[in-house]
Amino acid sequence: MFSWITPDLIAIVWGMVKAIIILLGMVLTAAYMIWLERRLLALWQDRYGPNRVGPLGLGQVIADMIKIFFKEDWMPPFADKFTFVLAPFLAMSLMMLAFVFIPMTPNWGVSNTNMALLFFLAIAGLAVYAVMLGGWASNSKYSLLGGLRSTAQTISYEVFMGLALMGVVIQAGSFNLRDIVAAQDGLWNVFPQILGFIAWVPAALAVVHRTPFDLPEAESELVQGYHTEYSGMKFGMFMVSEYVGIVMVSGLTVTLFFGGWDAPLWFDRIPGIGAFLGEQIPFVWFAAKTFIFMAGYILVRAALPRPRYDQIMSAAWLWCLPIALINLLITGAVVLWRAGA
User: What residue ranges are annotated as transmembrane (predicted)?
Assistant: First the structure.
């Protein structure tokens, strides 16, 4: 009676279910990171955060979403309408698309491809078009300046972001993120690839336009940058895409440099709970390490001021690029030496 149900069909359906669960969970995590950011900023700055709507203010995110849904979605009459609508959709969808390549456990992930890291770099390059198109379509000089800044900043930092990751690829011998996690068994990449990690951190901040790399927005000088003219749901998509990017970049940092779902090297030695968490519930470690980096991004916003635009660009070419090149040179030399070449 159910002869049409084949193992291949079951695998396809189960893969779709996993993809929906992961992407919905990621969007919900990004939404509640807004609450987390406001609470942590309040804690570090010695003030109150959201604490009125629901327990611990958890209902504030829902209240904000309802407000955005009912807010007037105004479109400037002088804007290019199609591009104006397309930009926030691109911002949200590309950040979500980049997340599909990140494996959270040995068996849980949306996509498992041997070119996963290359796909991420390609999507990160496309994400700048959302900001650039939003700035251009608004037909506003403030928005246009924000879009131009974003283009220059992203192109600059993506150059050494790719170079910083090539050391990880050389060590693992693969662009597959699962292979990169497996290659860190016994020693996380953050130790042999410390120079690559130092170059990666500012590049990741620049890709998601987080403080102190939020020059495309720059409220103090460009009003609101590339989304000055946006309101309602379109503004909400731009805003949520930034937090989706933070979750995505934090997960990728854990995958590339901190062993992914692997437990800390000493934790497996704890009898009972150590082996259980390390082998039976690997998602616990991936989520815990990702949360630490998400909180770290918030701490950077709380602690560091925004530098001038020329200082940001100078740091990219005069410091980060040489560090990434030196790391690549040292990694290649060590790998060749170990191979006996």
Answer: 12-33, 82-104, 116-136, 157-175, 187-208, 243-261, 281-304, 316-337
Q: What single letter denotes the amino acid at residue 160?
A: F
Yes or no: say if 227 and 235 are a contact pair by the CB < 8 Å rule. yes
Give the total number of structural domains in the chain.
Answer: 1
- Answer whether residue 57 is part of any domain: no
Residue 281 lies in a domain: yes
Cis peptide bond upstream of 305, omega within 30: no
CB 162 within 8 A of CB 118: no
Domain interval for residue 76: 72-338
Question: C-alpha 336: how far from its chain's center?
Answer: 32
pLDDT, average across residues 177-182? 88
Which residue, chain included where needed, has tokens 């901040």? Answer: 205
> What would the pLDDT profile of 184-195 be if each residue is shown by its tens digit?
887 888 888 899
The residue among 263, 253, 270 whose CA lies nearest residue 208 is 253
CA–CA gap between residue 335 and residue 220 (Å, rounded): 48
The CA radius of gyration of the chain, in Å to the nearest whole number, is 21
Residue 1 has pLDDT above 60, yes or no: no
Query: How many residues are given for the chain?
Result: 341
Residue 185 domain-assigned (yes or no): yes
Classify burial at 231, counting beta carbons within 10 Å of its beta carbon; exposed 0-12, middle 13-18, buried 19 or more. middle
